[in-house]
Specification:
270 residues; alpha/beta; Rossmann fold; 10 helices; globular
Length: 270
Amino acid sequence: MLGIFKRIVKVLRPTDDLNVAFDSGGRKKPTIVLLHGIAATSKTWDPLLSQIDTGNYRVIALDLLGFGQSPKPAGCQYTADDHVLYIHRTLRHLKVRRPFKIVGHSMGAIISADYCARYPKDIKAAYLLSLPLYIKDPGLHTNFSRTHTDLYLNAYNFLMQNKKFTILNSQRLRKLLNINDGVDVTEETWDSFRLSLQHTIIDQNTYDNIKNSIVPIHIIYGSLDEFLVQESVDKMRDFSHVDIVKLAVVDHLLGKKFAKAVAREIVKED
């Protein structure tokens, strides 16, 4: 019976690593791991990579499960658990020195918080950028923040239920903003986008993960962030292990100004 169970577990575990889009190398160096957001790729980090001294740090940028050149396994539900499992396995194979710093943007911030909850001893500090924090507990909301949160969740449900609209308009938005990385939903990434949106962003447990974390958490966001519920982020100030940095005239995307500020925060404690 035990043998059958072990075979089942082996089948259900990931068989392929995530795509390692960038690894500056140096196993003895302090390590920084970068996780991009939904429907994006590791190109998110181009503005940041030029700001970090890879002579002093090992910097690793991964394509998340279902995006970029990473696996898109059939039947995957793209929960935070799924994302963390693949990240953990990939970093283990890369022989990453622990503890390391983890940096996540948007959905990558949600996944980073989940990673801290599951593997706290692996993490020196977490940097959560443009965190789309949507709190479930109605007792933690004012009427305004509840309305604000519901607005986003309803919009996300609309996107999931309207495939053609979502794919077409993500491509139009990409052209309009002339961005090299950002929301780009295609036929190839539709399932990973739809299921990640539902099971990682909408069904998130980020508030509790941050509240109960033993890892130092740094939340960094822009004053013009289009996906942020300000009151929800402000609640994180109640926790002594959480530091919050608000950047003026910065939106959700990781532009040059945002990247420069993030780089300063990452190396500040070293």
